[in-house]
Hints:
Elements: E1 2-6, E2 9-12, H1 25-45, H2 52-82, H3 86-99, H4 103-113, E3 147-149, E4 161-162, H5 164-168, E5 175-179, H6 190-199, E6 206-212, H7 230-233, E7 237-240, H8 249-253, E8 269-274, E9 280-286, H9 289-302
Parallel strand pairs: 5-6, 6-7
Antiparallel strand pairs: 1-2, 3-4, 3-7, 5-8, 8-9
Amino acid sequence: MTILITTKRKIHIDAAHCHSPAGGQGMNLGLQDADNLAWKLSLVLNGQAADPETLLDSYHIEREPHAASTIKVTSRATQAGITEGFLARNIRETAMSTMMMIPQVREYAFKNVMQLFVTVDGGSKLLGTSDKGLIKAGHFLPDSEGLRQRTLEKRTSLIRRLNLHEILIGTTQYTAILVATCPSQAKPRLDLLEKFWIHARPYPVKRIIVESSWHTHFNQYPLFVLPQEEQDAQTSFYSEERMDSPYSVTSRVGLLPLFPKYFDGPSPCVLMIVRPDLYVAQSKTVYNENDIVSALEYFKAHLLSKPN
């Protein structure tokens, strides 16, 4: 099948696999290829890409290394499985089965077969930078739990808990996430919430703000949300109940160790840009408005602003 994307470019889509079927890696590769390409085609076809050629070129840059690696690994696995002889047979039947009884080895093998260690190649021009200690650009965004949606519902007991992936899966847009949680003794950074919301407004992206539960007013939206933005706001504001949990957004992105000791200074926030395929494009520590503006500069290189 051939798709005409621009007057200069056609994309040819095929399902031919040139590697061994060992481990069923062809299906995993195909799904990840489709996931990597679909949102890029969507941005180009909808006229939202600032540089369509660079965006489409990134597909090969990001996916070819994984295809080459899979061919190498599956070829070795096939060779090991068909090699004859007493020694080879004993290694397969005894040593391998013994090693797979070790939980750490079994988990590592499972994650490799499921391709859960896949990262976006550092040569991709779609990757920004990451501040020290934060989740790295090019890594898959780990799921987080314990989020509650901020709504106009007065009975907070009716608001169910969500995981981060539940909120993000299905979007064809970039997502800008401001993690603004802080200890209960610290002063919440309401100023940064407003600056983030306003400065991200010109771009066709999904905005998400994560606050601490003790600083959240569930039955109202902040005053900086415009009336025409209230529908978007319904899926933009979330609170986190236990930021010290290893599965919280605060811990997962690397914000928890950055809180000042004895709360003697302003708490930082983390501004993270996530691609539609849930890979982190950039992660920055922000202390003030200038930091937010600088972090959002990423979108100027990759997305066109919303029409006025």
